[in-house]
Amino acid sequence: MKDLYIDFDGVIYNSIEVSYKMAEDEKISKDYESYYQFFKNLDWCEVLEKSFEINDAFNCIRKIIDSGKFKVFILTHVVSMKEAMVKIDLIRKNLEDVIIIPVPKKVSKNKMVKVKEAILIDDYPENLREWAMDGGYAIRFDLDMDGKGFPVIDRLDEVIEMF
Length: 163
Hints:
Elements: E1 2-6, H1 15-25, H2 32-41, H3 44-50, H4 57-67, E2 70-78, H5 81-94, E3 99-104, E4 119-122, H6 125-133, E5 137-141, E6 152-153, H7 159-162
Parallel strand pairs: 1-2, 1-4, 2-3, 4-5, 5-6
């Protein structure tokens, strides 16, 4: 059984798209610190209310679990405890049997868990590059099927046939 880590924003929920639009509407400077402060103070309840589940993600995760091939974790970057709590509440309403690992935004995901031989499904290429460099399997989630050098899927349950 392989460890499978699934990103939240941009993979399970389109919350990254919604939050970036909110930053744009607020005319937030695109430098890292301005974005970090914006996201730290963001109303994540509002973000998730305006967001939607991507391609039946929760049912796909149930199928992945039922396949018996993977131990599934949700590995999500957060900038505040409020963001972590809101995401955890949403995930728990849909999935009771996965471990959720909030990762402080300033820490790389590959520094939080054992990466070697583990799988990461993420939409952000830099997370995937770091994961692969540490000996993990990196799979890009992208609705346009642009892998950017990585194997790519647009439905989470596609991972079942890959391993």
